[in-house]
Amino acid sequence: MTQQRRAVAIADPPRRGRGPRAVALLALALSAVLIAACGANPAPLNGGSGEAAIRAVNPYGDDPTAAGEPKRGGVLVLGMDREIVGFDPTVHNTNHAALAVYDTLLKLSPEGKPEPYLAESMESPDGGLTWRLRLRAGVRFSDGTPLDADAVIVNVQRHIDEVSSPGHRFTEPIASMTAVDPLTVEFRLAEPFGSFPVAFASNFASGGLGIIVSPAALERYGDDIASHPVGAGPFVLTEWVRDSHAELVRNENYWQQGLPYLDGLLFRPLPDTETRYASLENGDVDVIYGAYHAELVRALENPNLKVYYGPGHGGEWIYFNVERPPFDDRRMREAVVRGIDLDAMAVTQFRGRMERADSFFGSDSPYHTPEVAAAWPTYDPERAKALVAEYVADGGDPTVVYKASNTADRVAFAEFLQAQLAAIGIEMKLEFFDLAAYSTTVVASGDFDMAPIIGGPYDAPYPSAHNLLHTGARSNYGNYSNAEVDALLEQAAATTDEAERTRLYQQVALRSNQDIPVLYYSRSYLSTIAKPEVKGMVRYLTRDTFFATTWLDR
User: Where do the DSSP E strands lie in 399-479?
Assistant: First the structure.
């Protein structure tokens, strides 16, 4: 039974370094690396502008006003790009089925702002120091347990206790949690944190604090909750055969009256790109989660398929190790950026279609300004040669070690870069590793001069920009550090003033672009691809899907 004014004091948790858990997180993240597709029928180019751009298409799902009257029934079959690791939100993994079992307390709008969903409100009366989360009345988990303030506290406490949880970072500012009444949780923070509600709208892979597991199920299954999830989402897991399928059926006690429309969902792991795409084309599955540029471009060219894609924040980039020569010298970082012909990259590596990146934030983002774009070096091989020559004249060695995974397309991409940099006087030595070794030992260790990775797309600037650009952050594997950028990131996360947050992120983008912490070159290409009879899709740019409104027009 809920106790009135029950307070839980939270001790200051230890700050995380880049230990074994961070290495494991990187391994899982890199298992989704987007491999640039090469060859095969390049699309026509837009004259001298570069390439036929890939623009956002249905980025957040279907237009409900254009889909028609929803039909009930049917089982939606989905092809995943990897097997499910588990359903425990305190254990990092990308699980496409997770948001079928769990609804989030809050939900991100297309503008990246947290809005009510399973909870009806989250507000701060004092500029972000105290937050009150108000739950909807009458909501129950699929096992009949009520979703109340105690359930929220139990779940957030799990992230606090499990320092390796991807959601632990969100809990670090929490000083105490109090069940004010059965439907209200008050979070008292150690300092103002205006972005705190984002944690309750974040996706499963991010360890979102808004993904709530039934306390009764936690007590019953303990650590085995990863295989026996019980949430308040639209579907219930009934069967899971690893490396084969996961079957879910409608939650008859779902909190949104009249939903879901579907009878069930069937998830199949199809990690091979060609098999996954062919399964969609031949009708074996209704939806696939596209992991690669090649799938997205092929689907965009197929009139019999429907594409959901948005570039968001983040993108594809190459880390510079800024702690050791030669990239501790900004001149060499600038030389690399100026020495790479993105027109040639687009044609040879991206089938003539590449959405370019010159910042962590896309050109359509409010955080991207003309000043940010102007701060990023443009292609200028003569200037690049001069910068390298200056570095050599000062006694520097222009030899760099580039490490990457050993897939065919990653090898071809590395060889393209090698030729580009040789033309400006940089000798690039190539080392390749299987994906597991690359993920766990190479990038996380910082033992590289240059190393590629994919980050995004991200729906919101926090915590994604912080993870890449803040000193010591979890995805800052090149060890970039700038005290001014750190302060700007911290202020942006702390403020509750949207205009001020926008200004601060603009400054983050500008100041970091001046430093050239990584080599941005392309946006990300994660997509969802479906048969045209799939309707009512609602999604994040990360491909996380809210299945309650999905239906089949057949």
Answer: 399-405, 427-433, 450-458
